[in-house]
Amino acid sequence: MTHESLRSEILQLVERYSVERWPAQTFRPGVDLIRIAETIFDAQEISALTNIALDFALVTGEQTDRLEAALAQYIGVKHAMLTNSGSSANLLAITALMSPLLRDRRVQPGDEVITAAACFPTTVNPIVQNGLIPVFVDSAFPSCNIDVGAIERAITPRTKAVIFAHTLGNPADLDALVALTEKHHLWLIEDNCDALGSLYKGKKTGSFGHLSTVSFYPAHHMTTGEGGAVFTDDPLLKKIVESVRDWGRDCWCKPGKENTCGMRFGWQWKHLPEGYDHKYTYSHIGYNLRMTDMQAAIGLAQMQKLPSFVEKRKQNAISLREKIQDLEEFFILPTPLDGAEPSWFGFPLTVRDPARLDRVRVTAALEKSLIATRPLFAGNIIHQPAYQHVQYRVADTLETADRIMRDTFWVGIHPGLTEAHLSYMAGQLHQICRQSHSVIPLDTE
Predict the structure, then answer these.
(1) Annotated catalytic, 220?
(2) Among residues 166, 210, 220, 284, which one is catalytic?
(3) What is the C-alpha to C-alpha distance for residues 312 and 27, in angstroms, rounded to an integer?
(4) What tens digit of pLDDT does each residue of 242-265 get?
(5) What gap in Å lies between CA 208 and CA 369, rounded to an integer?
């Protein structure tokens, strides 16, 4: 047999294996755990991964090029740069703003970057890691998104950028954010890791900021295993991000390529010998944060399913909200802005009156019923142990961030959930509230 015929036979067997290994399951209420997130895949992803493995394509290459092009087109921007995680994507976005190539717009150590106190840590960590000062502002209910008014009150002459996340996929007020950052000549970074596929007035989130980021961790809207990406319309920012991602090198040759510029040994740098090899010239302090072709192959298969994943998340959120609409006296329910269409990562609930029904009691009861819950990530991050010795500034009050930490949690609405899952979740929430001496009928339809 030729190697091509063997490949064909292997891929056929892989498809058969996938069907047998991961058969469809019927949900058993109270027996099967309703996870906060699941990786949704089938034989297509397994075959794509196997196909690349058979070529031993271990590093960045053709598959990553294809995925970058597909992602840029999906978001509606000119450039997508793949990386090894959403956290690395945020690191690259913040670090890029410190490049000397940005001249008078360069962010310098000691400058301030405004962000929400109620957040995921790796939105904040790159600010600290780059010697910048995080300035924490409050969030607002019912969205739990960053408070734009608080941002404006926090701006000082040292403020150079704003980075924010669309909380659990619910788009923030992008009209106000773009107008504010333009007015004050600030960089705007969208942490779009929880919002892939969300729309704001018909335009994809992740296309509004100077830079934006996504994560492809298994819990997210699509996966490459580990992985993430940075997006921009700016060719200079693209060049900087790629340099920092690729060891800090100045050369833009693809792996395995040489002398793309046509003058590999013709460059002249002030402190380097004349004609020093451009492939080994470094213009930034960089890392190796690249994605592999094996991951990208999975991503290309996932992208074909992404529109259906997004639609299922939207429908699951609508369905769950309808089923628990009568619990608004107990919970603040998630509400999108006018013109926003969230691609929900999770479904947040905030307890209205902790004296009547506290979050710990609710989440303990849900977990006991095999319904997974999560807090809103770090809550107010300034209370977390890792940040007790970090230099930061708090602007105004963080009352909502504190309340989020105390009273907010979320449950899953990922594409793997069916109406049976959602009905069971709604039924358990009704039961928990009913046990708090409220006269609410148990309705699980």
Answers:
(1) yes
(2) 220
(3) 17
(4) 999 999 999 988 877 888 888 899
(5) 41
